[in-house]
């Protein structure tokens, strides 16, 4: 009854209402997760979510992308499959209607195996156990579905994938040979890294002048829009800048166990953003 009541209220609640209903969305998702695999409740709860979840505006679920996306899996268990089918539809809807908030999480999850392989052995097995192969497969499958969508979503998926690959390449670079003698003004070309050229067809020194279908600055996403209008990949989403290019050099943090890299991203409106 609680799940049904929450679904009905959230479907009817207009976006113009000033009251914060995020706590109610959290309660709904919490009830669903607690009961979706229990033998005595899974059938009715999953059926209620199947009938109602897609009728709830997707922007209500965007603040819970981490919790929702962390549950996706590729399983053969019939009982779990029903839950996964509903969850998959929700994830697809979030990524299609709010791409700048959803796609980056999905791409990160799809890279789980690659990231795990580069953790220098420390806690590597635990990491890969938590982000198992079946989760990675499920994320990749959803990305494949997004690539078949109409409009700018397929191109945006490719841009996020390209940028994530370049970020991972930089993150995996071992800095031990030179971190004691230099930690500022390191050149991407010196280490054959392509972060500064990933959006310019690999041509170093070539200036990318178009931000069409490019990701937004990772650390500065746009406000969530109930009307799902984010510019259709042509114009900047309101309240955000997209990635235009990167400076050709990067720094290391002066301290820290892994000496993270610091890059400077050039935004589509002229802003410069430090990214760790």
**Structural class designation:** alpha+beta
Please tally the β strands and state the result: 5
Model regions low in confidence, pLDDT < 50 over at least 5 residues: none
Helix content class: 40-55%
Supply the number of helical segments.
10
How much of the polypeptide forms β-strand, as a percent range? 5-15%
Run of helices and strands:
HHHHHHHHHHEEEEE
Oligomer designation:
single chain
Main pleated-sheet profile: 5 strands, antiparallel
Mean model confidence by pLDDT: 85
General description of the model:
There is one protein chain. 29% of the residues are buried. Helix 6 (99-110) packs across helix 10 (153-172). Strands 1, 2, 3, 4 and 5 form a five-stranded antiparallel beta sheet that branches. The protein starts with a helix and ends with a strand. It has 276 residues and is an alpha+beta fold. Strand 4 (261-267) and strand 5 form a beta hairpin. The chain has ten helices and five strands. The model has no long low-confidence stretch (mean pLDDT 85).
């Amino acid at each position: 009854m609680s799940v049904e009541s929450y679904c009905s209220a959230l479907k009817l609640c207009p976006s113009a209402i000033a009251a914060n209903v995020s706590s109610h969305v959290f309660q709904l998702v919490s009830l669903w997760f607690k009961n979706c695999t229990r033998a005595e409740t899974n059938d009715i709860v999953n059926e209620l979510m199947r009938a109602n979840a897609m009728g709830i505006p997707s922007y209500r679920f965007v603040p819970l992308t981490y919790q929702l996306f962390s549950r996706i899996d590729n399983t053969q268990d019939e009982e779990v499959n029903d839950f996964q089918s509903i969850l998959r539809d929700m994830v697809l809807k979030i990524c299609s209607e709010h791409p700048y908030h959803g796609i980056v999480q999905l791409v990160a999850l799809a890279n789980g195996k690659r990231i795990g392989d580069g953790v220098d052995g420390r806690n590597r097995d635990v990491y890969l156990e938590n982000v198992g192969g079946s989760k990675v497969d499920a994320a990749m499958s959803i990305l494949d579905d997004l690539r078949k969508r109409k409009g700018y979503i397929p191109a945006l998926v490719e841009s996020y994938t390209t940028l994530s690959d370049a970020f991972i390449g930089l993150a995996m670079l071992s800095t031990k040979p030179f971190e004691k003698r230099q930690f500022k003004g390191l050149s991407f070309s010196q280490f054959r890294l392509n972060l500064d050229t990933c959006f310019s067809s690999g041509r170093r020194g070539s200036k990318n002048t178009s931000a069409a279908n490019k990701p937004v600055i990772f650390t500065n996403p746009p406000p969530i829009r109930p009307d799902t209008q984010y510019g259709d990949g042509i114009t900047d989403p309101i309240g955000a800048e997209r990635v235009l290019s990167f400076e050709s050099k990067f720094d290391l943090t002066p301290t820290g166990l892994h000496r993270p890299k610091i890059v400077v991203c050039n935004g589509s409106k002229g802003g410069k953003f430090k990214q760790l």
